[in-house]
Amino acid sequence: MAATIDQIWIFFLHWLVGFLPAAWQHAAAVVLCVAAIIAVFCTLFALAVLMERKGLGRMQNRYGPNRVGIFGILQPVADGIKALIKEDVVPFRADAVVHFMAPVVLVVTVFMGYAVLPMGRHMVLVDMDAGLLFFFAMGAATELSVFMAGWSSRNKYSLLGAMRAIAQMVSYEVVLLLSSIAVVMIAGTLSLPKIVDAQASYSGIFPHWYVFTPWGLAGFLIFVIASTAETNRSPFDLPEGESEIVAGYFTEYSGFKFALFFLGEYVEMLAVAGLGTTLFLGGWSAPLSVLNVLPSWFWFFLKVMLWICFFIWLRGTLPRLRQDQLMNFAWKFALPFTLLNLVVTALWRILGPGWEQWVFCTAILAAAYVFMSLVGFRANRVGPRRYRYAE
């Protein structure tokens, strides 16, 4: 029974395409899978927006959306209708074609990354050997859409916001990619389903997730920080700093085009959460062996939504960084520490199973963290904050 529920979507797909001629079944299955991915993650996008607005409202001691539908659950529908009927204003001097294509390129490339994400046992649209590279290739295309939006608007605020966004995204994409290489070194593959399979075993009831190793924990923490910056989330939301540059690279966007940027940002956040879940948190595998009675796809989406809750919590907790702080952290701390983690990962593999790999790898990473933190604080003259109040 558990196996049937686990594969219920696969069975439903095969049953549905079984009504078509054999020559059409493969193409129809691909179309149905693409439509299902778009429908599921657009629904999760609406749910994430509602969770964020109500969650931030609770954190800030105020009400969130509570007028449209029971407890405000239809607020995303109202927002979507408003975006559809709102006037689409295009600046007179803007490049109309590029201005239109920028949000489309963003949404399309982000959704293409989902093609290689394993969302459950045997639930992956394309199981390619270089799936991780494909995901990062699609993610890198978002920089192109950001530049298209800033340049085509013929607005200095938009162009400045685009340049800030590209500098930030390129810097942290390097860190994001390097933190993922540690997983590839241990798993020995670039295929995301095989990476999940490598973590799907258990010692007793406890899983063999990579996050439970010294190099895996270090890589996971760096991945979380880099993914937060890559998706322009707080405290790294400088490209959209309303108090500084109006609205960043989409200052001149309104109506449904702005909604597409909004959709692209949240869908990218869900995609990065799915990748982090796949690389470090066992993907669709259960956190305990006794919990494997629940469907694999349930665990994948539960981990992704917990990741989204973490992003929301960060937004309601941390203030925005300065641009120099953001770039210094990327190039002077995150990148060197990630490169060191690759060396530690190699050492972990060379030493083999035993207490030596745990002691040596943990000691190296802990010493490096303490040393780099102290040097960074002294170089930047960072000390305890002193609060002064007007008399």
How is this structure best summarized?
With 391 residues, the chain is mainly α. The protein has helices spanning 2-6, 8-17, 22-59, 75-85, 96-112, 131-152, 156-187, 192-198, 214-230, 242-245, 255-280, 296-315, 323-351, 355-380; strands at residues 202-203, 206-207.
Averaged pLDDT, please? 88
Derived structural class = mainly alpha
Query: Please, how many domains?
Result: 1
Question: What does the radius of gyration come to?
Answer: 22 Å
Q: What string, H for helix and E for strand, traces the elements in order?
A: HHHHHHHHEEHHHHHH
Largest sheet: 2 strands, antiparallel
- Across the major sheet, the strand order is 1-2
**Low-pLDDT sequence parts:** none
Distance N to C terminus: 71 Å
The share of residues in helices is 55-70%
